[in-house]
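Reopening this ticket.

The earlier resolution said the output was attached, but the attachment link was broken on my side. Pasting everything inline this time so it's all in one place.
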Amino acid sequence: MRSTARQLLSDLIPPLFGKIYDRLIRRVGYFGDYSGYDEACQASTGYDSDLILQRVQDALLKVKSGEVVYERDSVLFDEVQYSWPLLAGLLWIASCNGDRLNLLDFGGSLGSSYFQNHTLLRHLKEFSWSVVEQERYVRCGKDFFDDQFLKFYYTIDECLEARHPDSILLSSVLPYLEHPYELLSRITEQKFSYIIIDRTPLLDGGKDRLTVQKVPAEIYEASYPAWILGREKLLAIFDRDYELVMQFDALAGSILLGDTVAHDKGFIFRLKGLKQDEKGNQ
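Inline output:
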């Protein structure tokens, strides 16, 4: 990451103490246990900010031009910080599908995960990465980031009609939806061959918790409602139609909530009964 006093501090102290410092002193992280989404919205600034979009756009344009190599949440890095389990999962899906990857990235911003991984995926026989996002992000994506591999769409249905993706990625998106389980139910009904969930904070047990996430000021001034989902409740959505292939720790690790700890997790699911021929084609 670009040199900052905070980065130097984080290199010198254990991660747990850094998280305690963020929460207690900087007031950064997840706070509260709200009874309803409207209440959490009133306690936060919300997602609909031109500032957030502009920061992400500016950062990813620098990545696209080669000025820097990696961006996450508008923060620039001097080297790619891979989510190795995610990349391994993408390559595994491609290997199961005849060296082909046709992915829908729901809530994928302006292609952050694409730019993170595309160098190690473009050798595939077929490679398509499609982002479904809010209208403003899609317009920006079409204007500045469309290429032969990366395309942007306003809805899942539009993407399905245009590119017929057989896999879907949900990276750091479920916590920020008002109704995350409604989306998951719709996705399982679509019978995607593979579903990947990444960067999703979870609590042990079946109870969800609605918080307000406060973003570090050096990224941008913002706060928004954020679900900490119950792990068992989340996994139950997939029981009928999907098998759990892999679960892994995501980038954030443990997340302090004041009275308890959540864990940033990822999962890869495969549709039950999915058949493949000897060449790996479905």
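Reporter confirms the inline version is readable. The CA atoms of residues 151 and 184 lie 22 Å apart. The first helix runs from residue 5 to 12.
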